[in-house]
Fold each of these.
Amino acid sequence: MVVIGFSGVQWNHVDPQTTPHLAAFAQEAASANLVVRTLDTTTCPDAGWLMINTGLRTASPDGPGGSCAQMPAVIASNGGTRIANWQTFNDANASNAYKPQLGLLGRQLYEAKKKVAAVGSGAALAVADESGSIPGEYFSDLSNIGSIVKNHDMTVVDLGAARHPNWPLGQKEGALAGSEFKAAFMPAPKAPEDLINQVKGIDARLGEILSQLDPNTTVVLASVADSDQLTARMQYFAVRTAATKESDVGALANTGSTRQLGIVQLTDLLPTLEKLLNIPYGKGITGSPMWFSLDERSAQERITYLTDVEQRAVSARPAVGPFYIIFALFALSALVVAFVEYRRRRWNSLTVFALFFAAALPVSTFLLNLIPWWQLPYANFALLGCVFLVAMALAGVASRLTIFNHLAGALFIATLTMLVLSLDAALGSSLHFSSIMGDQPQSGGRFYGISNAPFVVFATSTLFALGVVLNLLRKKSAPIHLRYATIFLFAVFAVIIDGSPSIGADFGGPPALLMAFVAVLFLHAEQRLGFVHLFLIIVLGVGGMIGISYLDWNRPEEDWSHLGRFFDSIVTGNVLSVISRKFDWLITSVPLAVWLIVLPIVAMGIWIAVKKRSKILDLTREHTGAVPAPKVFPPDIVIALIGMVVLVFVGLVVNDSGLVLPMMGVLYGLPLWFGAAKINARQISDN
């Protein structure tokens, strides 16, 4: 087997005329876009190579001025060879929350008695053992590569890095490193001619190697790092085995860690090599072995498809920041205007439209992925414009529906949102993938299921729909057991969609959902929720999620979602490090100053809620007087609103997304309720 690595090569660089060997290889290989995300926003070559070694996100020491460091030197040592500055890699990962085992692949190869050859310093990083020594032979150049491969079970080759001229390795000043914040606003820089020429050089060297290999050799090609330090991109990946070569058509590589056709992660490469070499699977790594799906398209059509997928991801990323700013400003402005109008008893239909427009924005970001918007000129701006147009259309429909019932407009948006998100998760998350409110694959976050911001939108929509149904059942004098059964069915639906490993695959969501639905149940039944009840609910929620994780853990390891991996961390004793990593993400998700502002506001809100609890509870109950006072909110709609508040604050505690959950509750949930409230308040005033 030969593993040939390089960096900075994307599928949109591949062309039969300029890079013939990279293009031709795709004809008889399983191809994919490769996500190379490490701990930083972008990945440096040394970090990418080291991730092959550890199977986890592994940091590399910074070069001068925060640039990517030069590749390490390989020196003679005790009759063998080793990485000269190996200790600096250990130091760089001393505080790494993933706890990578540096030297894992090297030790596995040594214990399996595999004859190993490394060609180039990147290859040496990939196969080094715990001490930084190469457990085999090291070669500094490609001469005699044919004989090297014949004499070894595994040969790893470093073909060099294609780097953007503004970000050379070891740059002393002006490195201009990227960040998650910058990536959410700035489009990716175009590849200059100098970078393309470097890719051509890599292709030429690849041709020299492939011409000297036995046709039955298993060959893995991987671009392990980005070409610059500003924007992360998915990279070139292809693997040729006897099975892919013998088929008349090529294939796409897949993995359980992404569940997306033709999308794999660099952390999947180690378990894939272990599978191909028939060596024991390393414990504690997060990737999954790859498998291959035959693809009837021609090699060029497959390259076009992979380029298109990467283009969608790159185009969506810089639209995220502007979308959330516009979303927040518009939703908050509409809420303030609605509140002022309510206090002055003024009823402007345009304000209702604005509230529904804000509530329709999240589902619009998903629906837009039904069309290839990324192929439009200025795709990131086109994306924003189209999202706003779709939201305006949905808001228009919702506004018209309020003619029939004051809850109809908000119910339309909530039901549509709930159905779109649940169906998308059940069908593979193709709308969530590379969307503004989902995750962009090059960031290495979620590739399937329901992530944190969509979770709040889905759960809030479900609670609002439940409130409307309970309100209808109460008006129809439905028996209490039927209303309890309705709450139970909504809760089961929401937990299955969000928590099932094969659908939502969300660990932190179901406990928050359970607390929210229990609060709805107790308030609807006009029962007091005591501390004993709360304790039992928490135990039930945590126990239920550990149980689901256990069921996921019992599946084959390559099929685990992160729920199964969490249970495995309990079994292996690494659960505290996982919790510590999640907690660190939670508290560092926003600057400390933001927490210092938000936490006092939250404390004040809790104090007001406790002090005014009698008045709040009064809003959740039907008045039985001879002439009951009309209410802006029917009791069950108030109960659903309280359920949403419980949801976001419990979710804040058990998730690692920081203030995303309460923020989405305000920006999406409140416009739903306020839109319905304004219509009802106007009708009460008219009456």
Amino acid sequence: MQTTRGRSAMCVCHSSLLRVALISCFALILAGWVEGQASDYLRPEWQVGQEQVSPEDLSVIVPAPAPDVLSLQDAVLLALEQNLGFRQTLQSLLAAQSNWYVAQQRWSLAAFAGVQRTGNDETVDERHAGAAFSYAATTGADFSVVAELTRLDSEDTQSAISALLQQPLLAGRGDASAAYEEVRRARDTYRAELLLFFIDRQSLIRQIVGAYSDVVEQEQLVAIQEASVDRRKQSVEDARLRLEAGLIPEIELRRAQLRLSSEEAFAIAQKQGLRDAMDRLLLLLGLEVGGMPDLVTPVPYDPQSLDVAGLTTQALESRPDLLLADIAIEDAEAGLRISRSERLPSLDLFGGWWEQRNGIEERSWNVGLDLSVPIGSRSLTEAVNQARWDLLVSQQARETLVQQVVADVRAEARAAEAARANIDIAESSVELAERSIEIAQRMVEEGLGTNRDLLDAQDDLRQSQRSLVSSQIRYYLALVRLRVALGLDLLPVVSSDQAPTTSPDAGETDPEATG
């Protein structure tokens, strides 16, 4: 008898679980279709050069000693791997990606089991097991199936299966539903993090380029200053010889010695500035501070003509912060859509089906409509007003950002043009200063001029050389900032020795070679 009951219970269990499986498969098919529609989240215009990011990129790296030789490309790659600030950007992107994956899964499936003993006049042992499936569709529908098998004292067996469905028809349906909003928000958060990843990477590369160029500039200024010290030493020696020959008064020698002391003190400060600049660069790269690698990437100078009107149009099409502003507008539009939906009457279609067996099979079902109408709810009306204001502010913020983009492009273009003009002036000044030194040297030797004329000519040469180096660095950095202002990727530029240009594909290299 017990064997017959056991077989019957197993048949009932298998039948119930089979029904749960069939209903769940149908719901999963529906879920897969909805997720397939939602997975088209990244249009081509959102793709602005992001790299593939994986959790392995966040592995802990102990700062390594500085290498003996360091190129600009190596410096950028090191910073992208080790810079702490950029690692936080990677973490935010991975978290947003994870949340997007979670939001896409609209269903859940769980199995449960339990044992309990209750006692009153007699003791009863109860064992139960079952499965539950639920699915929240982006249309606003909620669907759930629960199947459970209960056995009492190993003789009495009960089984139950239920299915419930609820679909909003007015408020909370479609793109105003909580499920749709959850998916949309996770999708747009991921979009925003992809753009912020690109923006932060641009910012880091720009910092590295600036720090690297600063070290290169300091090295050149140190070389100029050391050459100036050598010229001062030669001037002191020449003045001493002329004083011994009675050709000049002693004041000329003292004046040359004072100029030499000043140049030597300035050389010490210049070398200190070089070490400080190198330490700042190594700190950005995540390397041990204190090294002095040999920087092998020169700062190129490639004069370019700039079409400000064309560059402005290009920036308005490719700036990632404008895409972020579009996401903010989309969020505000979603808020307005939801607040308007909440002000509508709530009309829900619901249905259910139950089956229970305990020796006797019982079945029941229901279907109907549930209506709820908000009356005199000022909070719902004000929520719509506030959402509309948020949308207007977001739209105005984008219009203001457009003007900021135009201003950025114009400012960087002017900075580049000014630096280029200063380079031309400095090159002419260097030639004139070199010629002035030759003339002053010959006049001193012929007794037609004083030693002060030669010292002044040497000062002019040093200043002109320093101005030329600084102007060339400023022009290079202005082109880098201009490329950032245009929304163009900096990574291909620093992966080559070419000067940054305003062409989208300028400096492009093999993607596999640049990681």
Amino acid sequence: MPNPIRLILALHNHQPIGNFEHVFQQSYEDSYLPFLDVFSRYESLKIALHTSGSLMEWLDVAHPEYVDRLAELAAKGRIEIIGGAFFEPILAMIPSRDRVGQIRSYTRWLQKRLGTTVRGIWTPERVWEQNFAHDLVDAGIEYTILDDFHFKMAGLTDSQLQGYLITEDEGRLLNVFPGSEKLRYTIPFASPDETIGHLAWLSEQRPGSVCLFGDDGEKFGTWPDTKKHVYEDGWLVRFFDALVANQSWLQVTTPSEAIDNVAPVGKIYLPDCSYREMTEWALPTEQLVEYERITHDMHDDGRLAALKKFVGGGFWRNFKLKYPEADEMYSRMMMVSRRLQDAIDDGATGTLVEEARTQLYRSQCNCSHWHGAFGGIYLPHLRNAVYRCLIAADEILDRLANRPETWVEASADDYNFDARQEVCLANDRMMALILPSRGGMMGELDVRAIQHNLLATLARQPEAYHRKVLAGANQQNENCASIHDRVVFKQADLDQRIQYDKYPRKSLLDLFYDNETTLAAVASGAAALRSDFTHAHYEAKIRRNADRIQVQLVREGMACGVPIKITKGLTLDAGSSTLEIAYLLENLPQDRPLHFAVEMNFAGLPSGADNRYFHDLEGNRLGQLGSKLDLGECLGLNLCDEWLGIDVGLKTSRPTHFWAFPVETVSQSESGFELVHQSTCVQPHWYVTGDRDGRWSMKMQLNLDTSRAESRVTERAGVAVVVG
């Protein structure tokens, strides 16, 4: 008989803020409920379970009976409830005060609802930095779960990973469990016999050890093909049967029981790290391609296994560089977090503070800030949810500050931590974040009435997996492959849809083209840019009146071989839903026209639906928002999303041509490669020549009509009053 060892099964169930209701429900039906049903029958087994706060809130409303069952099993000692940061942020992504606050908040919620003591947390995506130990202990936590990869990167060998270890920061001691990468790949993809065989081998090599499996609960039913494999084909029953059959030497336990009964095997200081695949995804694309090439070339080299324990990938925080849009969400979150803390420091307390804090915490959910095997940052509804929470938090803080009914303000600061100043132009209806150092572009446009950022866009950039798409592979894996090994295409001809952007897909980008440039060339990315304005620095000035503020941006540069000067102004009135935009071009040639365009992008207005469409100034529909438009000699264009309740109108003082086309990415998700609509690009463009002074000017109004959405709110409020 093998020597006794302990096995901890720790599951992590999570759905992000902003995910679709049907995804929550399907995951419940495919994973969470059937797993609990099977597990409940095995009274001698125990598990540890972490459920993210965003998922737990949904479960408590949609399926409170499931949460009641968790409480009952926890009371019997069969499930240890693992806590965490409430809304599953990457801990490196949020300020220390919010780390501690989120953990304490979720601990209180779990203790109140489940009646359980929380001793440990699930570290989201196992992204670890050593100073976290300080915050975790200050938040009342005794242990966390990481991957064995962290410990190997610290220099430990497999033979030294016989249980949990102690780590320390500023004198705070924290227990850390190494999760087994081997078990992550065998459970549930290999046969139960293979897992039991590995554990038996461990018992011979390291008797008395504590081995931990820690991974996503969605592997048991929600991941592609796993529902059939785990439940219909009986994998989970066979696995639990095998655990019961080997209980004479294999004790299935929990993290707290292990800590209470087994001494730590040592002390360790861990490097900044995550699980192995995450460190690879965090690499810049060119470096990830090189990494994959080298590991592929060395696949049959016997030295590779020995080398891997010394090889790490990238640093998680650099996802904010790999995807600038992730940095935008982070920077915006920091604006709100700092504003909330300033209010608290000034003595603010009470319900509004707690409401703002909850919205801030929700916005910190990690899934939209990175990308690997899942859609992540490529999913617009996840990015939209982040901004919805941030805008909601700002509105609450406005109420806390007792702002008047209508107001307007402008401020300049380094909001995105790049050592350059940005300008925030805002009123009671909208907020525009302007980046003078980046082409004078508008990087964010919040519509307060619907809590929506129209510039939550995503630029198209190379991904390492695009090589598979371009190769045209379409491989349907047999059996139940890990999502890391699947190659499946959700649409045809994706290899023809890959293209990359030359600049951020934002608004008020100043472009010059050859005069013969066409919509097809612009939409495909083939059009050459004939100026240096797009990425350049503009000088910014703020002009203030009591109820009207203008931000003026000025730059001299080259366009089509001609030195010209561009001045653009953004003007906003208190109480207004219209942003006035004025352009003045100077030093233009009088003998030939220059092809000038202003790019605007609008995100969160999806394509492919009849109630999301273009229309002209007379209200005539011009096609769904995924259409390509090439309009001549008109004065305006509108984008209407009836579901969201907004009509975005562009109106120009000069007749213009309008190009419009969808911006779509080819990205990887757990179910395969897919095409995702990211934004609708609209470019009014002119063939401009200078007057006798070499000048050309135009004005444009950007109107954000949310009357449809606001009338719905009024109707609902009226119904509530009548019912009450």
Amino acid sequence: MSEASPLIVDVVVPLPLEATYSYRVPDEITGIRLGMRVLVPFGRRTLTAYVIGFTAHPPAELKEIIALLDSYPLFTAGELEFFRWAADYYLHPLGEVIRAALPAGINLTGKRQQSISIDGTTVTEEVLVGGRSISKERFYRPDDRQGDTARLRGKKLAVMEFLRSAGEASATLLRRETGIDAAGLRQLVQAGFITCEEREVYRDPFREEVRTRDEPLALTDAQGEAVRLLTAALERRLFAPFLLHGVTGSGKTEVYLQSIAHCLAQGRRALVLVPEIGLTPQLVRRFRCRFGDGIAVLHSGLSAGERFDEWRRIRRGEVEIVIGARSAIFAPLERIGMIIVDEEHEGSYKQGEGFRYNARDLALIRGRKDGACVVLGSATPQIATYHAAKSGKLGYLPLPGRVRNLPLPETVLVDCRGKRKDPLTPLLKEAMAANLAKGGQTLLFLNRRGYATYLVCEACGHVFRCPNCAVTLTHHRRKSRHYCHYCDYSIPAPSVCPGCGGGEIVHLGLGTERLEEEIRQLFPTARVIRMDRDTTSGKGGHARIIRQVEAGSIDILIGTQMVAKGHDFPGVTLVGVVSADAALNLPDFRSAERTFQLITQVIGRAGRGDQPGRVLVQTLAPEHYALTHALAHDYPGFYDAELAFRSELDYPPFAFLAAIELSATAARTVEETAHRIADELSRLKRAKAVRVTILGPAPAPLTMLRGRHRWQILLKSRQRSDLHRLLRSFREACVVPATVRLSIDIDPVDML
């Protein structure tokens, strides 16, 4: 590009548009680089756009960018390459991929706003909204020219004594330590005793945390071999993927910690993914005790400001380790040497809407691009992951026994066929009473929240259903309302049936709220707590409950699947699974796998301390192989049985899947569109000569969600390239009515 040529930038916008757009950079805007954000005119709007390149030969006429929004790039060329790969693989617009990778709420958008002027005319103007503010705070230090402090008394004297000792302190710290207010500090500045400086600060999500440093633990032979192999892979500085397959309580976290220590010693950094924020408090505490403050955390439990500040610390190279949930795979961490995906089997690594990426899979792609060691850790790995390890595509690191030679818990399968009147069988009640008498903690697992999951009028049979979704309403007694757990529609609990104007409304189906009520009646002196989405919705809700259980101040913990995922509760000696069958009957080929994983993980919460554990699993399907193998601690046996089923029906790991989902408010419109699209896919399949099986169209198992009727088409192929080739052609040729939403889900996880 010659000096006389105008500077032209190529940008993408955070909208569902595939195109790249070019804009002229006016002379007064300088310093623009790849990875920065610019404000651009876009149609009748003003939008934030992302600079992804520069054009040497621009079109004849171009609009100009309005403003440069950043002083430094938000993403690098290497990160852009990663974003492009994800956009291409998941068939999603690059602009929306970049938006998902950057902190939420930082983009500016122009919105038209009308107002009435003084003369009565209507004025339309565009107002920019959005953008994340940077936190600032005042810091104080003694003034070198300070006068005689002998005349100071009370809080002002305390401030001076504190500052003489500390050198400087923030306003927040001074208020906490001395009780002084803003006016008092201002008077000290005006009198020349102290100076004030305003600085940018990070909002610290761990400011209340108290911790002590710990040392590496002695390793079992299996742990030591795993660390040895991981260290050797780190020394080679090449991409090396592993499956760390350890039974519950086998010390996978210590393997992570000691391997990461080797990674940091090389001057490289580590990224640790966890599936849910409920797992984060314990893991972060262990990492901070081992490695100190060079850790950033990214998950939805933080405030928007805290997440933004953590992201900035990572971007500026101020941290060595990033721990986070799904979106942390896009953390702007450079020189990555190790990526850990803890509980790699968890479905929550898959984004369910919009940009439907899977962070577990992207971890392997990012590891390959960065030449990093990638560890997929689980006691119950995905069938596809274990198959890849057995096929030699992943290194296999087994941890077959628990640390300190602790035994796996004793398990009992309780056959409830023809016996279920009470949610707890006599055997489970007796076990709970005995455990309570011995001072042990009990964990009760029930994967349904609320009080009752099915409400019906005894007189006329009217069933309370969500008008927006194809599901029944769930009663929450403490709120005295009926809720839909999909769209949050709710109504006050009625005293009479809306169908017949009378009758008694019967509460059927058991949820954690009702189970908690019954447990409190059964064991009135026990200290009981419930852990589900209703009790952990506030900031720090997960951590608060976990601390109580760890401290031994809780006798009985009742919870949904969030209590089963990786928590280390040494005091839990009894686990009761109230109903093991719920997931077995879902219309999803992974239902047996998910049941096996969930029950195995729940079982693994028992007996992790000095006392042995016992587990009672209540079920109406005692012969099902998912349950029998889970209770026998037999992953290989379950794998063999499940693999035979997958092979017969050509499901992963023997084939690759993609789902096309359509929805509309009009049932007939979406049905007709689904059939037309299936026909178009069949035509393209013949034209492209690809080997793809087309299943459907068919109504989705949840036929209506949030007021929209839903249809699905499932695509299967043994060749990933054939699947993508067909779908790319389909995207180019496909036209759907404006009232129909269409999404393509590559490697779908949720088939409902």
